[in-house]
Amino acid sequence: MRTCFPWSFVGRSISASRAATVTASCFAYVVLGLLAGPALGDYQAGFRFGRLGYDLVEERGLTRFQARTHLNFGSIVTPWTKTCPGWPRSAASRFEAANKIGDLTFAAYCCAHLNTNLLAAGDPLDEVQGEAERGSRVCAEDAIRFRH
């Protein structure tokens, strides 16, 4: 049984998009894509909404939400509809982007997704372990930086 929540979110998103595209719109479209797939059963529409958010980041340079937009689109929405052998490497670049703009929370999420993507891609376990350890070190450093 589907609830009305996803539909109300869709309506609000469409109304807001008619008003203006703002910095957070890129991430909002990806979230809409996240809802459209599992909640509404329309994974192709979910991909299209997610792609819209991704394209806003790329074409308009909306970097404030770049890491979370790329992470959610690349690691969650895209695999529903496409197989991309480059996922693990793009997860690493999302981590670098998150770290660069100071989005420490999503830098940590990117590390976790990178490890998952490397395992799913069948990379050797010693390489996956190395990335996991590097990510753990970086996240620990970021936690110290975040507290100060």
Low-pLDDT parts are none
For the secondary structure, the number of strands is 0
Helix content: over 70%
Main sheet overview: none
Percent of residues in beta strands: under 5%
Class by SSE composition: mainly alpha
Mean residue pLDDT: 77
Question: How many domain modules?
Answer: 2
Listing every helix as H and every strand as E from the N terminus to the C terminus, the arrangement reads HHHHHHH
How far is the first residue's CA from the last residue's CA? 47 Å
Cα-based radius of gyration, to the nearest Å: 16 Å
- How would the global form be characterised? globular
Multimeric state: single chain
Count, helices: 7
Question: What is this structure, in a nutshell?
Answer:
This protein has 148 residues and is mainly alpha-helical. The protein is built from seven helices and no strands. The protein starts with a helix and ends with a helix.
Describe this structure in words.
The chain is mainly alpha-helical. It has two domains: 1-65, no CATH class; 83-148. It has helices at 5-19, 25-36, 43-60, 66-81, 87-101, 104-121, 125-147. The longest helix is centred in the C-terminal third of the chain and has 23 residues, at 125-147. The relative contact order is 0.10. The model has no long low-confidence stretch (mean pLDDT 77).
